Amino acid sequence: MTEKQKGRPQLLSDCKICVARCNNLEEDAVMQLDILISEHGGEAVIHEEPAPFPPVEQFTHIISLTADFPAYQSACDAMIPVVKPQWLQASIAKGKLANPRQFSPDPRLFFSDVVVTCGDIPDGDKDAIIGGVIAMGGLYSPRLTFQVTHLVDLSMESDKAKLVVSKNLGAKIVLPHWFDDCLKLGRRIDERPYTLPNPEILNAGPDIPVRTFGNAAIVGASTPEPTALPTPSRSPNHHRSLSVLEGKHIMLSSDLGIGKHLLDSIEDLIKQGNGTVTKDLGKADMFICRYREGFEYRTASRWNKDVGNLSWLFYLITHNKWTSPLRRLLHYPVHRDGVPGFQGFRISLSNYVGEARAYLENLIQAAGAECTKTLKTDNTHLITAHDKSEKCAAAKEWGLQVVNHLWLEESYAKWKMLPVSDPRYTRFPPRTNLGEVVGQTELDKAVLERNFFPADSSVDQSRVMQQKDQNIAANTEVIKTISPQGQTKSVTKSSPAPSKTTATTTPHTSRSSCKTSNTADAKTPIISRFLADEKENVTPSTTSSRKSKEAAAARIHDIAPDIALYEKEKKRVGGVVYGGRRKTDPDLIVPANNKKRRSAEPEEEDDAEEEKETKRQKKVKPPVAMHLMITGFQRWVGNLKQEDTDKRHLRNLGIAITQDAKKCTHLAAPSILRTPKFVSALAYAPVVVHIDYVTECLAKDELLDPSDFALVDKITEKKVGFNLAATLERAKTNKNKLLRDYRICCVETIRGGFDAFKSIAEANGGECTLFRGRVSMNDHRRRDPDSESDEEEDHLMKNDVFLVSGEEPEHVKVWPRFRQMVLEAGKTPRIVNVNWLLDIAMSQEIGWKDEYEYKTDVAF
């Protein structure tokens, strides 16, 4: 018996879903989606280009393969979920609507196609990978199923890895390093160098060149100023040539600087695609210009027209497929002076090839810097796809800034020079050429609006009325006052324009509006009025001007309550409520008629008194009884909302959650762990409790005695060879000075990250520096006269220099240099693995085992 027969509502009974038949979604797939939606009680609307996209507000969901379709931004503004087709299958399989975030086509969620499960890897790595994948749009499966796309493992000997091979499941078996590098870069790189059974990052020698893969993201978008006419696509999948321009009104700016012959050719291509070339900005759907300046550019941007450059128009014509001009950096008009702060930079490129190199060269020029073919000492930056080249070695030796292309792209997108010290910009994953992720950065519309077409431009206000050939609807900016009788007075700004009409302002499109709407920005009380279409281009006479004024005054009179409500909301704590007020709100002004309206000022005073009373009655938080550091808490993994709720709950009980080991008085963990938090916190001798302490406090809503939840883990104590209680006693004695005066270096790409080992060393009074070919021998620390050490420890402290390293080829190659420099300084070099530092920190005593040290270079 079906759900309908049983009387229960069907799964999609409340859903109206638009299927966007763009971006190469096959016709058979569209028909299948239509059938599935109808079978489960939903209403399907199929949209096919070049028809205008219907208003997004009427839909509950939009299904699309990508986010690159005309109505995507409008859907986001209206909070309409845009999902991939897999969302429908997942919802039907679960019997309930799936989380749309996990099926979003948003390119920023670069793990959206990933379903990951973990093999035999440490719990800390597992938690980090699961949390990162979920945060970036992916899914985690505790079991190995056919839906799993990636298995994270360290070898092919685990049970899950053997099952993947025996059952031929198709999941890729990758090292955890892949997820780590993707998350640190903020981009999804190719997983082939990390794929078992023969991962290239572990087996390839240091002299083997890094392979370069193709990059489709910048095809047709490598220059803002194309020199050749586009060749329209003749794909058999398209029933008509240039359907992407059908029904579009396109305005070409005078700042393009192209000759009449080329201009005529472009207009002919537009007309062949049933598009229309117009000189009327009010009618235009697309505005093509070269620079981010001028009255027309600002007006088109504020009216939410599609503003792009010739490169973008040529891309549409060539591929006959819609793409947003904000999708690629060089599809949008450039600025004459470039990004502030980039002037004077001399930037060279290394290891980028083909169109990726041309794209970066043009982007450097668009940013306002100089791109040099060769690298010299007067260069300021080197942008490289990987750090294995002669240019990279020379740049480091000369002290130049060596970064990847993300620094350039994101600085251009955010329109400010970002600091090169950000680890994302100095990250070079081994055996990966970052040229494969060039061109994935998009422009931010909010940044563009803030810098190039802000809403409050008084210069453009007067020019609107002076444009005789522009079909632009005028708006009146009103500074309102409401009289006690309910009459509204409008005060307009003075304008040098000779027209007798009231001064106007360029309309600004709000976030919740569609592309074609001219709604005023929610932050500015601008009242829109539109003249009759057939008379807009006629010079207004005295009579028409008077009629316009009367019509505007009538409309202003009608919306006076809305203005009053807006002014009231401005005074509310936290600003104007996003999304407006509901009709059911008790303080919503609903006048009985237009003649009897009262001032909102008394209610404003009442609201102010209510807010003051609320603040007085606000519950006072109890004093902090403990500063708690938590590690390994599975309840919070991938659930930020639950984490925030629990932290607020704990604070109300007197427990402050801290991430700083120096501040923590208590440490909660499920067992003895080797996580940076746990190991660093031990140096401060906190009270160590089981993670159940946190759970019980939350469940019972009270501050419990931590002594009843002391952490007992005999199995791990036996395995690692130390007693937790004894460690904490020694930590109290050491007073964070266990590693004082020890010289510790660390290779840059150590597993676990340099920052983790640096924090552990510093928590114990030591200093850990990054080894980049130099070792500091300055004795700037002083011995503590109260500290005790035997002769062997004192000898180690005074004469030994330690390098924390792994056995990877990139680590091994720096060993001879380290040994040479230490020996030249008259010291003893000791190259040790990470267990040396971890065992010292976890036992809180100096110890030594021969297995800690690499005696000879490892041959590969």
How does this structure look, described?
The protein is globular. 33% of the residues lie in helices and 12% in strands. It has 860 residues and is of the alpha/beta class. The chain has seven domains: 101 residues, Rossmann fold, CATH 3.40.50.10190; 89 residues, Rossmann fold, CATH 3.40.50; 115 residues, Rossmann fold; 97 residues, BRCT domain (Rossmann fold), CATH 3.40.50; 104 residues, no CATH class; 108 residues, Rossmann fold (3-Layer(aba) Sandwich); 116 residues, 3-Layer(aba) Sandwich (Rossmann fold). The N terminus is likely disordered. A four-stranded parallel beta sheet has the order 2-1-3-4. Helix 21 packs parallel to helix 25. It is built from 29 helices and 28 strands.
Key features of this structure:
Rossmann fold, single chain, 29 helices, about 850 residues, 4-stranded parallel sheet, about 35% helix, BRCT_dom_sf, CellCycle_DNARepair_Reg, 7 domains, BRCT_dom, alpha/beta
Task: Please sum up the structure shown.
33% of the residues lie in helices and 12% in strands. It is an alpha/beta fold and 860 residues long.
Distance between the termini: 66 Å
CATH class of the largest domain: Alpha Beta
Q: pLDDT below 50 for ≥5 consecutive residues: which ranges?
A: 1-5, 235-240, 464-544, 575-606, 779-795
Briefly note the structural class of the backbone.
Answer: alpha/beta
The value of Rg in angstroms is 33 Å
Annotated CATH homologous superfamily of the largest domain:
BRCT domain
Largest sheet: 4 strands, parallel
Region (Disordered): 478-553, 578-620
InterPro entries: BRCT_dom, BRCT_dom_sf, CellCycle_DNARepair_Reg
Protein name: DNA repair protein Rtt107, putative
Biased composition (Low complexity): 488-513
